[in-house]
Amino acid sequence: LGWTASEDLLCIQEDGTVLIYNLFCEFKRHFSMGNEVLQNHVLEAKVFHTEYGTGVAILTGAHRFSLATNIDDLKLRRMPEVPGLQKPPSCWAVLSQDRVTIVLLAIGQDLYLLDNTSCSVVTPPGMSPSAGAYLQMAVSFNYRCLALFTDTGYIWMGLATLKLSVSLPSPWQGVRVCMRPRSRQRAVVVAWDRQLMVAGNSSEERRFVLDEDSYLVPELDGVRILSRTSHEFLHEIPAEASQEIFKIASMAPGALLLEAQKEYEKESQKADEYLREIKDQKLLPEAVSQCIEAGGYGAETPSTARLFSQAASFGKCFIDKFPPESFVRMCQDLRVLNAIRDYQIGIPLTFTQYPPWDSARVMTSGRVQDLARAGSAQLVLRRLYPLAIRICEYLRLSEIQGVSRILAHWACYKVQQKDKSDEEVAHAINQKLGDTPGISYSEIAARAYDCGRTELAIKLLEYEPRSGEQVPLLLKMKRSKLALSKAIESGDTDLVYTVVLHLKNELNRGTFFMTLQNQPVALSLYRQFCKHQERETLKDLYNQDDNHQELGNFHVHSSYSEKRIEGRVGALQNALDEYYKAKNEFAAKATEDQIKLLRLQRHLQEDFDKPYLDLSLHDTVSNLILDGHHKRADQLYREFKIPDKRYWWLKISALATRGDWEEMEKFSKSKKSPIGYL
């Protein structure tokens, strides 16, 4: 068994199947650690955490290691084989070094390190040859420290060149590394026979007697000691101020201020004497700061923390322009911590584990509520929504980053309640959320759809004001026609194109065209798309509508893409037929003339070996006159019934360009000029 970073329970079975449950023992999903684990079974398993996420390491019955560094992006990795390993190692642990996950294992007096490609033997610096065989190893929470326990009662703890050897009696029950972030003090905690021992860098050790058999759990800044009836936390006091104040007969400024406040409560004049002593040394600001710091880190109970807060408040009254930010922030932090540490809530965070409330407090408060960069919050995961909302309001977090996110989580939980109808759930969610900033109804609807409540998801999408969020989910739910209507209502052409193309891939051609017939806007946009991308589909659309006019235009347009003259004439002939069906006499006559002109141009090109194709009628006549083919020009003039004035201007211009004045004189005397004096 093990916990993920998001507080899901992992249950690793003998066949390598990993079951995942949430805090309420509700099954979420499962995955397998591969065929090799399935065939050889699991001898031992460990759950570990790295910067990649939560991982699982497996020791199989074939004495091989397999691991996955991130269960949310499962990539199984088989570690190299340990030479000569015929039985399970006496102990092993997972380490993370330079973003690479490795396995450290012990066989007798030998240590082996398995990385991605190789297996190597390692020797801890300073380890005595007579230390004996390794029985247990422990890794610190941040993977920076390692402790090794041997059968002769020795402990080796190291980080790089660090070495420490302590003789201990056997038998043992548990070894854990205990250290605080950014602390230079490292310690190892050992439990056996209801005794607890803490050994550090020096030869000194501290021993404690336990009332019951206990289990040790390492954490970020200490070790939790769990028994059947109690839960204790052993850690280094990180604040020097706490050590100064709590020392016997301490004369530290914070200790004097604390005494002054106690005497003030007793209405004793000694309060003034203590204050004067501090002020004479000009240490009153330091005394207040020490009390503030000790209130957070050194206070074991709410009453002790309150005592330090009262002392700090008392002292700052005698300081001009004392910045109140640190005091206010500490009071806020303590109040929040007290609220979530309450036995009815049961989240025993330490002050070090509690996120820092700095200038970026909105982005660093992930342990109290669910924020964008912090993942699921502990309160929200426990469905303690009222307390989470009260904390957000107390800390004056922005509505989008605080209350809105909590309400969204509540709504996602609400849609899972199947004892109420879809109408009741949708109405209750809308009543609670309304138009709260930062709420995405589409995300809630997606959760409802994942839970198998499609109709509820559709009802929730009705409250979503952004069509761009509605349409993708409707398409996912196979409600394409409704998605098309929403896209058209939005006026977003890109969104309409998205739905139309999705419908095209989803439906058969006939049903697709019929669907578009009922949506003129979508049909018009699709026609525009086909004009540029799918010309043949455009032809099918016109055929289905019996739109002969557009079909004629389509064939005319297509004729210009034909390279051979026969193909072009054939396309124009099709256009001519469609124009006759559309009763467009002008278009039909123009197309017929174009067919006639193309055929004549082909003959001219063959007769004179000169390009005439694709010229207009006027250019064709003009070129014939320029080339001296007057009879062929007159033939076109008569066949295409070119007006007299136009033909005279064409011929006069061409003859003038050619400089054929004799022909121009002859032409001018052939008949009366329709264009006047020549």
UniProtKB/TrEMBL annotation:
GO terms for biological process: endosomal transport; intracellular protein transport; vacuole fusion, non-autophagic. Residues 439-677 form the Vps16 C-terminal domain. It comes from the Eukaryota. It holds the Pfam family Vps16_C. Transmembrane segments: none annotated. It is a peripheral membrane protein. GO terms for molecular function: actin binding. Residues 1-329 form the Vps16 N-terminal domain. GO terms for cellular component: endosome membrane; HOPS complex; lysosomal membrane. Keywords: Coiled coil. Residues 257-284 form a coiled coil. It is found in: Lysosome membrane. The keyword Coiled coil applies. InterPro entries: VPS16, Vps16_C, Vps16_C_sf, Vps16_N. The keyword Coiled coil applies. Core component of at least two putative endosomal tethering complexes, the homotypic fusion and vacuole protein sorting (HOPS) complex and the class C core vacuole/endosome tethering (CORVET) complex. Their common core is composed of the class C Vps proteins VPS11, VPS16, VPS18 and VPS33A, which in HOPS further associates with VPS39 and VPS41 and in CORVET with VPS8 and TGFBRAP1. Interacts with RAB5C. Interacts with STX17, MON1B. Associates with adapter protein complex 3 (AP-3) and clathrin:AP-3 complexes. Belongs to the VPS16 family. This is Vacuolar protein sorting-associated protein 16 homolog. It comes from Phaethon lepturus (White-tailed tropicbird).
